[in-house]
Amino acid sequence: MSIGLKIKEFRKKRGLTQKQLGSRCGIADSNIRKYESGIQRPKIETLRKIADALNTIVIENNGQFDLIEKGQTIIKHITHITQNDLLTYPDLDRKLSDYIKELFISYQGADSPITNHFPDELSARCEIYNTVLHHVDIKVQNGFAIYDIYPLLASPSPFDPKENCLLEKYSKLNNKGRDKLIEYANDLSQIPEYQKNFTNPKEDPELLAAHARIDVKQTSEGVQHDLDIMNNNSEWD
């Protein structure tokens, strides 16, 4: 599908007229009409404005520009990559990084820190991690640009699904609810029982109180001897 038809598809999906779309992105509706009809191709800067107005992102696929939903995975565009491809096409890692940068910037804005957390972004990071770093196995590539984009992607273990669940719940809250959730998290982080490296004394053999041994046979005389010691106050002075 041509980029013009893709613009038209998303415009109608958003319930916008050509004039409304043009107004949103500061482009004459006559130009929007030309783009959609294929008479004229928009420059990349113009296409980015249109994509932003349609709440989509621009990606490059086989030399052609395309629009996709912000929450849509971009993995389908890179799953065909193999180790041999990386050696044959030295700029392939740059293209991968461009895809990912485009996704992150679209969610966060060009001036936002790349390490902000957003639920859709987290989902995309998980897919990128699992597909690119595991299935494609390119973490050994020296200077792979993805490490500069998001250091977490270089982690040896996948993301904790509980983190994804927490962020998903967070995204459904309003500002008041989010502030309350952060307040709860701060309170929990101050309680030793809920801290990451907390060890429960009841579960730590070294901290357990003395208890009956099962490797030594107990006699009635031995039990009585122990009771006599426990009941003799002079033994505890």
UniProtKB/TrEMBL annotation:
CDD domains associated with the record: HTH_XRE (cd00093)
Alphabetized UniProt keyword annotations: DNA-binding
Record Pfam families: HTH_3
Domain of life where this protein originates: Bacteria
UniProt signal peptide: none
InterPro entries linked to this entry: Cro/C1-type_HTH, Lambda_DNA-bd_dom_sf
Residues of the HTH cro/C1-type domain: 7-61
Single GO MF annotation: DNA binding
SUPFAM superfamilies assigned: lambda repressor-like DNA-binding domains
UniProt-listed PANTHER family: HTH-TYPE TRANSCRIPTIONAL REGULATOR XRE, TRACRIPTIONAL REGULATORY PROTEIN-RELATED-RELATED
Name assigned to this protein: Anaerobic benzoate catabolism transcriptional regulator
Organism listed in the record: Blautia wexlerae
